[in-house]
Amino acid sequence: MTDQPKEVQRLVEAIKALEAIEDDAEAARAATAVLDAWPDYHAQLREFRQQRVLALKAQGKTWAQIADEALGGVHPTRAQQIATGKRGTKRPKADEAPTAE
Does residue 99 have a pLDDT over 70? Predict the structure, then answer.
């Protein structure tokens, strides 16, 4: 985890702090509060990332450079999609099967 920015480390630590709550009801309430607020924060993070990608493009970076340097090696096409605000598709992980609820 040391290669992650300190802000990401703090977010992970906050999640671990929720997991450390011993009282099950209190832990569930805290997790619910975070999940209830998450859609707003998620949208804010997506917009923030989009603006930074656009700023990099305005500085003359190529989509390949942006994809590699700023987005962790995604495909350059994905960097362009992020710049336009297009959302990625959610795919189940290889070891997960879709479940019906």
Answer: no
